[in-house]
Amino acid sequence: MIEEPALGLGFNGGSSSSNETEASLSLRIKQLMDSQPFAVLCTQGEQQPYGSLVAYSMTEDLTAVVFATPVTTRKFKLLNQNDRVALLIDNRCQHHDNMMNVRAVTATGFAKQVESDKEFKFWSRLLTVRHSNLSNFVHSPTVALFSVDIARYFHVERFQEVQQWIPQRIIPG
């Protein structure tokens, strides 16, 4: 499944195609995501957008994110109606006195509920290693895990410098 960039098909965010620049951008994205335990999950449904705060974790190669939600929530309902999501991660709380130092990442992708036991074990471990206080919550029968396959990241710094990065899955071995 291919997703078009939100800023248009020709958008490259001003980034060069060099491997060094791409590696630097992916590192900055990873550092920001590692430093922030929560994201705003953006969903769409009932003819309007909806935002929710989630505790998340991501794979080492940044190609996927996982979070948990109770099955009785609007978030769960909307995720089952429309799999297209965005996650916003930022460090604004660390730079309330200088907007030029704020960095943000919007990750766009496709959410799916984790169903199989093998997948559940992998994703729940990834989430609870980062958020150990969520272990009982994650394993509750009234909670669902969702993984998000990330299609692309939009990285913003200095308030208006936007770069796009498309993660590549690392295949072990």
From TrEMBL:
It comes from the Bacteria. SUPFAM superfamilies: FMN-binding split barrel (SSF50475). InterPro entries: Pyridox_Oxase_N, Split_barrel_FMN-bd. Residues 29-152 form the Pyridoxamine 5'-phosphate oxidase N-terminal domain. Coiled coil: none annotated. This is Pyridoxamine 5'-phosphate oxidase.
